[in-house]
Design a protein that fits this description.
- Residues 94-304 form the ABC transmembrane type-1 domain.
- It is found in: Cell membrane.
- Keywords: Cell membrane, Membrane, Phosphate transport, Transmembrane, Transmembrane helix, Transport.
- It is a single chain.
- The protein has helices spanning 8-13, 16-19, 24-68, 71-75, 91-122, 127-140, 144-158, 165-190, 193-201, 206-217, 219-234, 238-243, 262-272, 276-307.
- By secondary structure, the chain is mainly α.
- Helix 5 (91-122) crosses helix 11, helix 8 packs antiparallel against helix 11 (219-234) and helix 11 (219-234) runs antiparallel to helix 14 (276-307).
Length: 312
């Protein structure tokens, strides 16, 4: 004799707790506790990681801001200015840093982006692709002093050129290209393959698909990586110390004559350390470099967001 099936009304009147497995509420409570604990641990570790950065920025702003508030700081150079006397400016170092970084970027960005495009879109595991990847890995770990010494041995000693800002840019190119290649390569791999296949199905050539679809889709990430590379090379001190001579006057020509830069100016001030004015210039130059890098990053993000493909 079979038992009668329970009526719908009896099922509706049965409490939901009776339908749950035994111990389900305890498991749910335990999971919530572990989730909350992990969340707080993540927030705590993030705060520990941010705390040194906030402290460095606080000290940098506190000690460097008085120099930046002076109009002379941006308008004048250090020609004829005594190191232990207030006055003078840093325009010569700013111009030198920007011109050297501009030349480095003009050379590095096309080489780095096109290399990454080849590795992602065209290389099929051939010997050229493997060799290129291997060389990029080697350049990624090259210290800046090694790049500077290599350029000094080749550009100055072997070819006989003079020390100049362009020699500094050549050394910075060796440091900037691998960063751009690695970042661009990762950004291109994130682009869905469906976008490429849809363009191919419409008869769009591969090169035009890359130029019109793939690169604009990954543009925001590529620009971010480029600006990270620019920020790295702008703060390098070894190449400017070896490959260019310091000067207290403005020099716009990166191919001829001595040319100062912010890292080199900070090294000069660090060697002196004779008075409060020297330390004020040292901290002011450091804060100026941070402000310039921050402004370049913000401007690059605005440009990339304007020209990148918007998701619908």
């Amino acid at each position: 004799m079979t038992a009668a099936a329970p009526s719908p009304s009896s099922l509706e009147q049965r409490p939901h707790a009776a339908l749950a497995p035994s111990g389900f509420s305890d498991i749910s409570t335990g999971r919530k506790f572990r989730n909350n604990l992990a969340t707080w641990v993540i927030y705590a570790t993030m705060g520990i990681a941010i705390l040194p950065l906030v402290w460095v920025l606080f000290v940098l702003v506190e000690r460097g801001l008085p120099a930046l508030l002076s109009p002379d700081w941006w308008a004048y150079d250090m020609f004829g200015q005594l190191s232990n006397v207030a006055g003078g400016g840093i325009s010569h170092a700013i111009i030198g840093t920007l011109t050297q970084a501009a030349v480095t970027t003009v050379i590095s960005v096309p080489v780095g982006v096109f290399t990454a495009v080849y590795l992602v879109e065209y290389s099929r595991g051939g010997w050229l692709g493997r060799t290129t990847t291997f060389m990029v890995d080697i350049l990624t770990g090259v210290p800046s002093i090694v790049a500077a010494l290599f350029v000094y041995a080749m550009w100055i000693t072997m070819f006989g050129f003079e020390r100049s800002g362009f020699a500094v840019s050549l050394a910075l190119v060796l440091l900037m290209i691998p960063v751009i290649v690695r970042n661009t390569e990762e950004m291109l791999r994130i682009v869905p393959m469906d976008l490429r296949e849809a363009a191919y199905a419409l008869g769009v050539p591969k090169w035009k698909t890359i130029m019109r679809i793939v690169l604009p889709t990954a543009l925001s990430g590529i620009v971010t990586g480029i600006m990270l590379a620019v920020a790295r090379v702008m703060g390098e001190s070894a190449p400017v110390l070896i490959l260019v001579g310091a000067t207290p006057v403005i020099n716009w020509n990166v191919f001829d004559g001595n040319q100062n830069s912010l890292p080199l100016f900070m090294l000069e001030m660090y060697k002196l350390q004779a008075s409060d004015e020297v330390l004020s210039r040292l901290w002011g130059a450091a804060l100026t470099l941070v402000v310039i890098i921050g402004a370049l990053n913000i401007g690059a993000r605005i440009i990339s967001n304007k020209f990148s493909i918007k998701s619908s």
